[in-house]
Amino acid sequence: GNYGGDSNTREQTVTHEIGHCLFLAHAPDGVNAVDVANAPDAAVHDNAWHNCAMSYNYNQVRRFCGFCLLRLRGWDKTKLKPTAAQNKKP
């Protein structure tokens, strides 16, 4: 029932859940969680990318935003900015 009529696929759901296993927080798009454990964290996502795999935006295919990709590659999230142009290779 959750996989029809929009851009959400089983593969994207699995990707989202694996993201949580890798300590990625929810992106703000489409996430309305009120509890702290599931609250979105806009500070750790690319603010120009609205279809991050960690969002619940099912209007388009979800893929990891640039911020998530850099974190998955080992970059320190405390040194990253949510505006992509502000991130430079050290």
Describe the structure.
With 90 residues, this protein is mostly helical. The protein is built from 2 helices and no strands. The radius of gyration is 13 Å and the shape is globular.
Notable features of this structure?
single chain, 90 residues, mainly alpha
List the topology elements.
Layout: H1 10-21, H2 66-72
Please give the share of residues in helix.
10-25%
Tell me the span between the first and last alpha carbons. Answer: 46 Å
Low-confidence runs (pLDDT<50, min 5 residues)? none
Strand tally is 0
Proportion of beta-strand residues: under 5%
**Biggest β-sheet description:** none
Overall radius of gyration: 13 Å
What's the SSE pattern? HH
Can I get a quick summary?
The protein has 90 residues and is mainly alpha-helical. The protein has helices at 10-21, 66-72.
